[in-house]
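pinning this so it doesn't scroll away 📌
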Amino acid sequence: MPRVAREKSKTGIYHIILRGVNRQVIFEDEEDASKFLQTLERFKAVSGYEIYAYCLMGNHVHILLKEGKEDLGVAMRRIGASYVYWYNWKYDRVGHLFQDRYKSEVVETEKYLLAVLRYIHKNPLKARLVKNIQEFKWSSYGEYINTGTLTDVDFILNIFDSNRDKAKLKFEEFHKEKSNIRCLDIEDSRLIKDEEAAEIIKEVCQISYCQDMQKLSASDRDKCLRKLTEIGLSTRQISRLTGLSRYTIMKAY
């Protein structure tokens, strides 16, 4: 079937989600996350987009940006291709990393713009990665409160107040409010707990203990690993439960 054309934003602002193929983890460590942010910053000058918010989760990324001199699709291809090239080189792997098409939604009102911004920043709270929003290192929230070069904070802060100190206070208070507005999301973003993951590993691989994966032949092991990643287990989680190295797991994809 032909692809449906993306809705064009009248404001040029979009909420975008990039996700790992088969729910694969796309940030194995802090170096990966830093590299992705460097990639976003590198192509700002080339594509001319402005970034209003971002949040790097384990297997997906939220970005709130305004399209620049280049079409959004061109800019996203630049970002994706550059990061995947580096990621595959680092982990000695080949093939796709991101799901075929990024997801996007138009943002055309100030109310929804702020709702999406807050939703993106609160993703780590939703996933129970942190207890306080300011604790999460890999979102743009800290750039609004402190300093940073990637996020274009002026546009958003000026919505709250022309005085910078007052704007920051209002920004923080706004993020404490609850909202019933539904934003673009991934349907399968839930985290699989280790207890559940262990049972999945034993069932899929037909073994009594997770560590028994180390005793399987290379071909059987790799088949199991591919099934486990399709289900949604992360490389790090499989490694932690089975004792297999992350390199071995990623080579199976």
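📌 and the second one:
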Amino acid sequence: MDDQATQDESAAHAHQYDATALPLGLRVLASGINTYLRAIKFFSRHVVENAAPVQALQRAGKPVIILIWHERTFQVPSVVTICPRPLYALTSRSRDGAVIGNVMRAFGMRNIQGSGTGASANKKTNPRKRGAQAYRAMLQVLRRGETVIATGDVPPGPARVAGPGMIHLALRSGAPIIVLGISRSKQYRLRKSWDQLRVPVPFGKLAMVFGDPIEIDRDTSEARLAELQMEISDRLNDAQKRAEQITGEKSD
């Protein structure tokens, strides 16, 4: 087998995991994570700020895009208790993404699998990631008046910098973007991961800070969209900092 064939096989294997049909070992892992997150949720004190706008939009059957930073992926199940309608979560078709998708489904969330490529990869999106299919699926969901929750930043980074994908999705769907900062007073940081993923630890305080809806007109220019990309990064960082202030989370 030549080098190109080896690379193609590796890429295909990396993005073939389906959250609805995991191998037994990964299903057991997802079940264990689900149990762990439920225990943490039960033993945590919750503080929520500015949830009224997203709740009002959902009750009115309006589409919404909620954005968080990728490092807070394990905190997403806690958002379910705040929202009156189901959330459609975007996860990758990688092994890790499929496990996370399986965990989220156990919390009553819906799953859309597919992903793009972050700017630091310095390459085009791998079609095997099914980013285009996921984009179309999210567009259909939003046009039905549902809510999509996704990460503003995309692997492999840069972290805490919003990519253009969700902004263009908001433009086409007419859905407002609502940023969400999430923090826990007790957590473990995986410092070697590209986003320094936070893994929650039992007990302590959980804070969720929602931003106000950000509307994007259909006739918005490309130049303005680039500006909005920076503004959304700033707003999400502001919401994240506020959540960290509430819990006393250290940023170092």
